[in-house]
Amino acid sequence: MDNNCSERSMKPFVIGRKNWLFSQTPLSAQATAIIYSIIETAKENQWDPFPYLIFI
Fold first, then answer.
1. Which of 6, 29, 31, 38 could form a disulfide with 20 if both were Cys (CB 3.0 to 4.6 A apart)?
2. What predicted TM-score, i.e. pTM, was given to this entire model?
3. Is 53:38 a contact under the CB 8 Å cutoff?
4. Which residues contact 17 (CB under 8 A, 6 or more apart)?
5. Virtual CA dihedral for 30, 42, 5, 7, nearest 10 degrees?
6. What is the C-alpha separation between 50 and 3, in angstroms, rounded?
7. Among residues 44, 50, 55, which one has the least CA distance to residue 13?
8. What is the rounded CA–CA span in Å between residue 3 and residue 16?
9. To the nearest 5 percent, what fractions of the chain are helix, strand and coil?
């Protein structure tokens, strides 16, 4: 057993983490993290992220 799929889905989140250091407020960093999480969840379930964001 391995967790390669989970690790690959988190890669954009980890790369973006350093960019969040430059967020204006902690709330903006939190909002960015939530959006990343929603997008990666959609990708993991093989859904198109943009229509999914519009739907929710």
1. 29
2. 0.64
3. yes
4. none
5. -10
6. 26
7. 44
8. 21
9. 80, 0, 20
Domain spans in the chain, listed from the N-terminal domain onward = 3-53
d(CA 15, CA 20): 10
CB burial of 25-37 (b: ≥16 within 10 Å; e: otherwise) equals eeeebeebeeebe
- Consecutive H or E run containing 9: helix 4-17
pLDDT in tens, 7-31: 777 777 677 777 667 778 888 878 8
For the chain, what is the radius of gyration of the CA atoms?
Answer: 13
Residues in the chain: 56
